[in-house]
Amino acid sequence: MPQQLRIENLSAVSSRSEVEAMIKKAFAPLVDSGDLEIDMTGTTAKKALYVLTFEKNYGWSTFSHRGCLFRPLYYGVTGTVNVDAIGRKNFCADVTKCSTCERLFRTKDEQTKQIGQTAVHEIGHLFGLHEAKAYAGADSDGHSADPANAMFAITIHKDYKPIEEDSQRTKKYTIVKGDWLSKIALRIGFWPPNIGWQTLYKLKGKDGKSNKELLRSGDPNLIFPGEEIWVPDIAARIAFNRDAELKTKTFNKEQLDTMRAFIKEGKTIFD
Fold first, then answer.
1. Entry pTM
2. Considering just the CA atoms, what is the radius of gyration of the chain in Å?
3. Residue 38 pLDDT level (bands cut at 50, 70, 90)
4. In the chain, at which residue ranges do the beta strands (DSSP E only) sit?
């Protein structure tokens, strides 16, 4: 007898039919083999062992929302897709000026694709792809470093580093009158404000040198107009993220076999 996957609150997604199609396509092998049935309405009386819910609102905090910057920690967690997080995710050249910000997923179609891919990813976790031993190449949380894999997580991509540590995606900024390190760090979005300048001071650029090495006074409180320092290259970060996130993603055979065995046995990740 097939296990049921229940999809709840799909009305939170404006492009419902497209997301439905992505979920159905990803798990068609499990449905076709008779191991799974999917309730897209979230209303059937049958008890569902697996439930995915679409959440319209995201719990923004001072660390994920600063000024004009929206930087969610995640697009979803096991069993949940955060629609608002996907729609608002952006990058800002100056977090105090919204005109300098660009959403990662620019169009409705791009947002829909990311919502669908996040849904498939989180269902994968529900179906047993949630730990290192789940399939070859998985990290300790069941994620893949391959942008073409449905369990992809950008934080384990071979070329990923947090913005505070990314020396390759940097560019030069020329200090002007009225600048000081904490003011520049605030515009970048380095947080919290009282130590953001330290992050900027330690930031290394493409040449391997830190801003501490570049500033001639040797005193972070004494900088001069005309001096150049390294700052994050926002355009390069956007390009990197878009290339990885929007790549079409699928499960491989091993992952499908792992999920099939997991649901055939009626297991849950909470066992």
1. 0.95
2. 22
3. very high
4. 3-8, 36-39, 50-55, 65-66, 69-70, 76-77, 80-82, 90-92, 101-103, 170-174, 228-232
- Ordered structural domains, the chain, with CATH: 3-160+248-264 (3.40.390), 170-232 (3.10.350)
Specify the 3-state DSSP secondary structure of 139. Answer: coil
Longest dimension (CA), the chain: 73
How far is the C-alpha of 185 from the C-alpha of 233, rounded, in Å?
14
Asked if residues 72 and 64 have their Cβ atoms less than 8 Å apart, the reply is: yes
Question: CB-based contacts of 155: which residues, under 8 Å, 6+ apart?
Answer: none
3-class secondary structure, 237: helix
Whole-angstrom distance, CA of residue 198 vs CA of residue 144? 33
